[in-house]
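Obj.: predict assembly geometry.
Materials: sequence records (below).
Method: joint structure prediction, all chains together.
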Amino acid sequence: MKIYCIIIFFFITIQSACAELLVIGHSDIKPFSITISELSNIFMKKHSTLNDGTPVVPINRAANSDIRNQFESKVIKMSKRDIRTYWLKLRFKGIRPPVVMKSTEAAILFVKRFPGAITYIDSSNQTTGVNILMRIK
Amino acid sequence: MAFLNSKSSQSILRQLIIPLVFGFVLLIFLVTSLVFYEMKYDLETSIKKQLISNLKSINTELKSIFHSHILDISAWSKLEIMDNIINDDIDGQIHRSLQKLKSNYRLSGNILVFNQQQKLISSSNDKFITQMAAIIPPEKWFQTKGDKIIFTGKHINPYTKKESIAFTKPITASFDSQHKIGFIVLTHPWSDIENTILPKKIQGILLDKSGRILASNLKILSANEFIQLEKLLKTNKIKLHNSEFLFESHQFSNVLGVPLNWMIVALESYEKALIPVWKVGIKVSILALILTSIITYFIVWQTRRVVSPIQKVTNAALDIAKSSDLSRRVEVTGKNETAILANSFNIMAEKLARTMSEKDHYANRLSTLNKTLEQQVAQRTEEYRTANQQLQSTIKQLQEAQSQLIQSEKMASLGQLVAGIAHEINNPLGAINANIPILIDYTQDLFQLIDSIKTSPELIQSLQDIDYEFLQQDTPKLLASMKNAASRMREIILSLRNFSRLDQAEIQEILLEEALDTTLALLSHRFKNRITVIKHYQLNRPIPCYAGLVNQVLMNLLANAEQAITNNGKIIIETKSQDNYAVIKIEDTGIGMDSETMQKIFDPFFTTKPVGQGTGMGLSISYGIIEKHGGKLLVSSKPNIGTIFTLLLPMTFNPQNSINNG
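Observations (raw C-alpha cells):
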C-alpha cells in the first residue's frame, strides 16, 4: 500500500512539475506579445503597461498554490523569502501586490471581463475568450 | 338727617375693614398667581430641558449608529476581495467575507454587493444568491454621485420585505481607484431605528424633510401624516388632534457628510405636564383661602376692637341727637386716646345738659309771656273787629235810608210838581176840549152859509182867491186833528195825575193792568216803531197798595226794559196770581246782564249807565218800595238774551206788617 502511494505521489509530482503554464490576457491584449522579463516586471508591479503601452492588470493566484509556485520559479525567479521581502518593501511604499484569484475559473473569468487583465493558468484549462500571451514550459 | 343713621355705609368700621380685607385678598391673589405662574414657567422650562436632553441622547445614539455604518461601509468597499465582483464572486470569497462581517459586527441588517450593472453579486444573507438574484433592487440605492456614500431613508427592502434604511457606497477596483466595479449596500431594519429614536419612555415624532411622519409613538398620530414644519420652527407649543404639546426638535442634516434631512421632535403633553402645577395651584389656593379667612377674621376683630370705643361715643352722640337725652354717658375704659375722647364727651354732654336746662327754663317763661300777650291782642282785635262791623252796618243802613229818603222826597216833589202842572194845564185844556166840537159845528154852519150865498161873482171871485174849496176841505181835517191832539193831551194829563196819585197817598185797591197801561202810555213815545209790547193780563183784580209807589216801580222797570233794548225788541208783560201774591213779570229781549252786575243792581247808586244819565237809585228804591209792601222783587238775566223782573205783591196788604218788616 505504501509503495502504491509513493508511486502515485511521485507520478503526480512529475506530472505537475512538467506541466505547461499558459499566460493569458484579456482579449484586447495581442497574443504572444510579451516576454518573460516583461511578465516578471508586470507581476512585480515594476511596470503597469506592456512595451507597446497597453495597460495591464496582473492577476495572481493563491499563495503557496502549485501554479503560483511554478510561475514564481519560472518567471519571477526569486525565492519565496525574497519575494515576501520585496512586497513588504513595496507595501511600505503604498504599492499593493497584484490581485489574487483563488480558483483558476475565477482568474480566467476575471481576465475575460477586465480589460488589460493578465494571469497564468495551467495549460490544461479552457482558454476560450482570452488571448494566450505566452506558453511557459 | 341721614347722617344720624348709625348703620351708614361710611362708618369707620367699614372704611377700615373693606380696604384692609380687599387689599389682603388682592395680595394673596397676586402672590398665588405669581407662584402659580412661576411654577408653571419653571415646569415648562424643566420639561423643555428634559426634552432637549432626550433629543441629545437620541441624537448621540443615532449619530453613533450612522457614524459606524458610514465608516464601516467605506472601509468594506475598499476591501481587495471586492475585486471578485468582476468574476461574479464565483469563489464565494465576498460572500464569506460578508457573512464574517455581519457576524463580527453583529449587524441586524444585511450587506449586499452589486456589480456595476446593479446585479446582486453577493450578500451577507444565508440565502442562495440565485434566489435573491431575481429580485430587482431599488433604483435609489444606486443614485450615487461620484464616490460618495448615499443614504436611502425609510423604504421597503425588497430582499427582506421589511422596512429599512440603507447606505450605499460605490466600489472601485483595488488596483485602480478610477475603475468602478460595483456597489456595496448596508441595510438597517427600520424597527431598530424606531426603537433607538423613540424609546418607550420618550414621546417623539420622526419627520422627513417634507414633514411626513416617518415614526411616532403617539397614539393619536399615524404614519405618513404630515405636520407643518414651519409651526415647529416658530412656536414652542403644537396642537395635534386637539391635544396641546410642549416640544423640542432637532434636525439631522447630515452625518459625516451623508445627507439625512430628518427631524426628531420630542414632545410632552401640555395638560399632563401641568398636572403637578394644577395640584400645587389647588393646594396654594386652599392655603390662601384659609389664610385669607384667618387674616380677615383677625382684621375684623382688631378693627372692631379699635373702632368699638369710637362707635360707643358715636352711638351716644347719635342717641343724644335723636332723643335729646343729655343724661346719656359713655362708659370709659382704659387710658388711651379713645378713653380721653369718651371722657371729654361725657364732660361736654354734662355742660350741654346744664345749658339746655337753663335755656328751657327761660324759653318756658318767654313762651308763657308770649301766650298772655297773644291772648290779649286777639281779644282786643276781636272787639275792634266786631265794633267795626257794627259801625259799617250802621253806616250802610244810614246810607240806604238816606238815599231812599232823598229819592222819596224827590219823587214826592216830582209828584207834586206833576200834579200841579197837570191841574194847571187841565183847566185850559178842558176849555179847548169843550170848545172844539162847537167850533166844528160853527165852521160847518159857516161853510154851508157860504155855499148858499156864493152866487155873486165878486164873492165867487173872492172865494177863489182864498182857495175856498181847499179851505172847505182842509178845515174839518185841521179841526179833527186839533180835537185829537186835545184829547191826547187830556189823556196825558190824566196819566200824570194817575201817576202822581197825590190824591191817593193812602192805600187803595187798584188794577195793576191799568197801572201798567198808564205807565206804558207815558213811555209810548220811547217805544213806538221800535218795541213791540205783548201783554198777557190774567190777574184782573184790584190789589191793595200804595198806588203811586207801585206806579213808580212799574215806570222804573219798564223804562229799564226799554233802555235795555238797543234796537228793535219785545217787552212781554204778564200778570197772574200765584200763592196769594199778585205777580207782574216784565220780560225784555235786551242786552241782559252778567251775574256780577245782577248781584249789584239793587245796591244804591249802582248804575251801568254813563255818568249823568242815571242816579243808580231806581232799582234800589223799587226794591225798597216792594219790600215796604211785604212783596218781592226778583231778577233773572242772561247776557245778550234778556232780563226778567218778577214783582210779587201780597194780595192782602197790611201796612202795619209791612212797616214792621221794613
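Conclusions so far: The interface with chain A takes residues 80, 83-84, 86-88, 90-91, 93, 173-176 of chain B (CB under 8 Å).
To do: check interface contacts against the pulldown list.
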